[in-house]
Amino acid sequence: MKLSAKVAVPVAVVLLAAAGGGGYYLWHNQKAETATGAKQGEKAAQGKVLYTCAMHPFIIKDKPGTCPICGMELIKKVEGAQADAKEMAMLEHVSLSPSQQVMANVATVEAKTMPLTKEVNAVGIVQYDQSRQAKVTAWVAGRIDRLYVNTVGAYVSKGKPVAEVYSPDLVSAQQEYLLALKSRDRFKDSPIASISQGGEGLVASARQRLLLMGVKEHQIAGLQKAGRPNIRLPIYTPLSGVVIEKIAIEGQYVNTGDPLFNIADLSTVWVDVEVYENEFSFIKLGQRVDIVSQSYPGKTFSGRVSFVYPFLDPKTRTVKVRVQLPNPGLKLKPDMFVNASVKVPLGTAVTVPVAAVMDTGKRQVAWVEMKPGMFEPRDVKVGARVGDMLQVLSGVKAGEKVAASGGYLIDSEAQLKGTGGGHAGMPGMKMEEKGAPAPPAGHEGHTPSAPPQKKGGGMDMGDMKM
What we know:
By secondary structure, this protein is an alpha+beta fold. The protein folds into 4 domains: 38-91, no CATH class; 96-114 and 348-434, conserved putative lor/sdh protein from methanococcus maripaludis s2 fold; 119-129 and 266-347, Efflux pump adaptor protein, beta barrel domain (Elongation Factor Tu (Ef-tu), domain 3, Beta Barrel); 136-263, CATH 2.40.50.100. The chain contains 7 helices and 25 strands. β16 (288-292) and β17 (300-313) form a beta hairpin. The longest helix has 45 residues, at 2-46. The protein is rod-shaped, with a radius of gyration of 49 Å. The two termini are 87 Å apart.
């Protein structure tokens, strides 16, 4: 009896341990099956994973592989979930068959690196050189007894008189000078220093008065030699040029400072050029400017930019630029209309045709051909426009091919696919969710071509979902 008790106790312990281990094992398996079922349910909730071709989106398979048409690796097409960045980039591509490119008039051009020269064209008006203008005025009050210049447009020389004026004050000043000369000669030998030196002071004072009245040095010397005053005083012009305004009339009485003539030296003229506000930043001081006038076909006048005005005309939206240039033969007349051009070197830069860049208002887009028939939208930053070419600052590299024509049709194809295209984000436009590439619409000129049949059996039509 004692032996049976000793055996029964260990057996009971073993049975209890086996029962506990079996219960734990059943509980653990049930928990694992529950977790696996949850994962499978979550995966099923995410949607079925399909695979498609980026160049031929109508090819859809349920497992990875290659496209039966072009041989490219298939990418995931996830329904009900967002694609990753790489897939999103592939979805933005637009593929066109050769026939579609012909019908859409799509032509590609290679981006090239070339030296650029910006040409700024503007219109201008010939003006007087303000630094070469002068007025002939009366230095003393009196009467104009004689005019040597009677017409506007006459050429006057700096060394020749233009008029003669009779002035009682001038005659009196000449007499005072002659008396001072006589007094100096009379008292110069006086033993009293103050008297001998006082004569020199009187001569200097009378001489200075004549100079202030406009009498020239050679006229004073002639007065001293002749010993009698001149009744009429010749008036000279301060510079040589053309009379642009005649105010004086022979016999007219004038006061001190009254203008008689306006003189302009036309050997050098100004041209005020109107440059639009989007181009005046290219203008710098000292730049060479070519001036052309309709009055002289085939003749080009060259000048330099001497000044850029610090304000803008609010009506014409232009900035005035002053060009100074020589005028041999006085061919350029004031108020004459001319055409001006400035060539500004921009250095070497990457260039594309103007038609290759679409400006949406918020961004500038170019369609770059990644592979034959496959285009990718690129945001580009452009600089100056030179003729039919655009300077590309970023976005396109030299050697890449861009769509020079048909870019808007490629963008329309991208819109129909739901990938957004170049106009993504524009106000008033709804872009479909970027999940999977939608089949291209069958509108005129964009109908996808049917895939060719394989030799020896043909292609599985179950792969195509039109």
